[in-house]
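Sat 14:20. Reprocessing the chain from the morning session after the first attempt stalled halfway. Input below, unchanged.
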Amino acid sequence: MQTVQGIHRGVPVLHAGPGCAAKLAIGIAGSNGDSGYISPHVYPCSNVSETETVFGGESKLEETLSNALKVIDGDIFVVLTGCTAELVGDDIANVVRNLKDAAKPVVFVATPGFKGNNLEGHEWVVNAIIEQYLVPKPRGSVQKGLVNIWGPVPSYDPFWIGNIRELENLTIDLGLEPNMIFGEQRGIANVDRVPNAELNLLLSPWLGLSTVKLLEERFGTPFLHIPAYPIGAQETSKFLREVGQHLGVDSRKLNPLIERHETEYYYHIERTSDVFLENRTMSRRFSTVTNAADALAISRFLVNDFGLVPATQYITDATPIAHQQSVARYFRQFEYGIEAEVQFSTDGYKIHEDIRSADYFGPPLIIGSIFEKKLAEELSGNFLAVSVPFKERLVLSSSYVGYRGGLRLLEDIYTYVLRKFN
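Finished this time. Tokens:
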């Protein structure tokens, strides 16, 4: 639902029971403050009942879809199925085929709760749009310098809007043209341009790999996989060099660009160095308790840019087993030969017990969700919420990506440290 909502004028159509639909709608609108083009409370829903459970709900879905296409001014309609429809065996593909002549495109995705989680569902939705809506472009239609960017997950990442914009800005700095399908005014027109891109750029440890591979298979578009979005000077400069060299950006433009950004970045670091060096309540070791993308990006920044020492990093996004080894490998590739132990777990109790028993050689810095706030207070440590559940902060367009994002992350960490000290 959040992925479809993240596409401007995208309309989720729910083939599920009213209880499931209402619970998720309340969760989206209430916990994250997300509404989007249309409110989650008014998503079209077939309201599957006992009758549809016994006799099938295809006719009910067809009626719901037909009416939604008449009364909702959307650009793409995506049918999402709940558990009941999948268990009954409704032929959603056939229902959608019957609407092939509809004024707006209709796509369907099997998304029962028992099949996977919301991150996997994000991939399924994007891949379904690629497979069912996009068509191959004529040979020679590739637009030089056009780059599709994949990575931030709408709403699941509280900073998704700001991160998307900063990734766009970094790409523009290189003289390239970014194309992202999520966010304000990024809608069906951007989706239509996806096959024309010169490159698909993926910034994620594992999520989205199937998408860029699918795009390479269908449209012949190569992809560049950078496992973490860049935070701070070192990672952002490395990002600009890697993307720039991959697409043949002239070094005479690239080097002055990086120098200008680094000069500004280190000016702010130097003028605040006393706060960093003299503060006796700041942590020396840290743990992240969050998804793989945030854990890796933040860990790289805190180790490579800022010189902190990593304790165990806890990844809570149910990373598929097939990807766990490669994700863990990224945490053994910090600068100076530093490595971090990684635990993949969705058991908050065990994670907290493990943190309690660890030696942080002083107050720990714990970066995670609101679930870790009381734990940090109990251990007299420092804390920052960066991922859902995300209850204590409002994020509109803030970002931790890039040079300015690194400064913002330090601001947020040290705001907590200084507030606690004073």
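Residues 251-271 form the longest helix (21 residues).
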